Amino acid sequence: MSGIYIHIPFCKQACHYCDFHFSTSMKKKDDMVLALAKEIAMRKNEFSTEIVETIYFGGGTPSVLSNDEINFLIAEVYKNYKVVANPEITLEANPDDLSTERILELSKSPINRLSIGIQSFYEEDLQLMNRAHNSVEAINCLTEATKYFDNISLDLIYGIPGLTDEMWRKNIETALSFGIPHISSYALTVEPKTALRKLIDTGKIAEPQDEVASNHFMILVETLQKNGFIHYELSNFGKEGYFSKNNSAYWLGKKYIGIGPSAHSYDGEKRGWNIANNSLYIKSIQNDELPIETEILTISDRYNEYIMTGLRTIWGVSLGRIETEFGLEYLNYLQNQSQKFLDDDLLFIEHNILKPTPKGKFLTDGIASDLFYLNLE
Phi-psi bin for 161: left (phi > 0), alpha (psi -120 to 50), beta? Predict the structure, then answer.
C-alpha cells in the first residue's frame, strides 16, 4: 500500500513561524491546479504495481482551493492509479476557510478526513503567530465540522511565549470537549529566516523556552492518555482506529509520491524532492519535464531514517530488523551507542524493540541523532 501527497503552495497570509514552501499570491492558482493534475498523470508509472491507500492535501493551505478544484485533483488520482475501495482522503484546512456552507460541501465530496490548523484557542497566541483566523472562528468551525465529519484531526502548538501551563491545559480541554479523535501537537520552533526569528532578534517577542515546552509536552501526554488517546508518534495522538494512515505510512517506510512544488517522494530506495518555486514548477510541467531531484539512499541513510522514525513511534526500533536489514555491524554500533541512554533511563528494550521511556520521549530527536551511523561507508 502507498500514498499520494499533494502540496498546495498557497496561503492567505504568512504565519510567523512557518518555513514551508508557499506563496500568498493566488495569481498562479489556476495554472498550478492544471500543473498538479498533469504531474499526477506524468508519474503514474512509478506506482504501476502499487495500490494507493491515502491521498493527502497538505500545504500551504489546501482549503484555499475550491471544492471543484479539489474534486478535480482527486479524480485525476483515480484516473491514473489503482486506489483502494475506501481510501483515507485528508484535507488540511484553516478555520477561516471552514464556513458552515463549505463544511457541508466538503462532506459531500470524497474528502473523509479533515486536519484543522487550530494552533490555539487564545486570541493573543493567534496574533503572535500571525494566524489568519481568530478564536471565535476556531470554536465555530469545530462546532460545525464535528456535525458532518467523524474523522477530524486538529493541530495545537505549545511552548508559545506567554502561554502558561493553565492556559495550555485549557487549550487541550477545549479541543477534547469537541470529541476530536486525533490531535497533532508541536512545540513552537524558531526556524532561521522566518518572521518569528526576526521578531525575537529585535526583542519584540521572547525566545521560546525549552523548559516550558518540555513541561507543556508532559501535560499534553498525560492529559491525552487519560482521555483514551494513544501516543503513537512523538507529535501525534489518536483514538483507536483514528491514527493518520498517511503519516503512519511515512513512519513505517511505505512508498509515497509527492505532487507539487517542494513535495517529497520515497520509493524505498531513493528519495526525491520537487523544485520549491511555483513559477519554475509550472513552467517545467508545462514543458513535460518533472522538476525533481533524487538521491539514492545509502544503507547508512536508510538505517538513520529507520532510527529516527522508529524511535518517534510506538512501533520502536526492532533490533531483529536492524540485524537482518542492515547487518551485524549496525546492530553492534546501535547497541554500543544506545547503552548510555539505557543507563540513564531514557531508552528501554522490550521484546527486542528499542523505545524511549516517558522521560526520554521529549528528547527523542536528540537521542536519535546520537544513534546515527556517520561516515562509516
Answer: beta
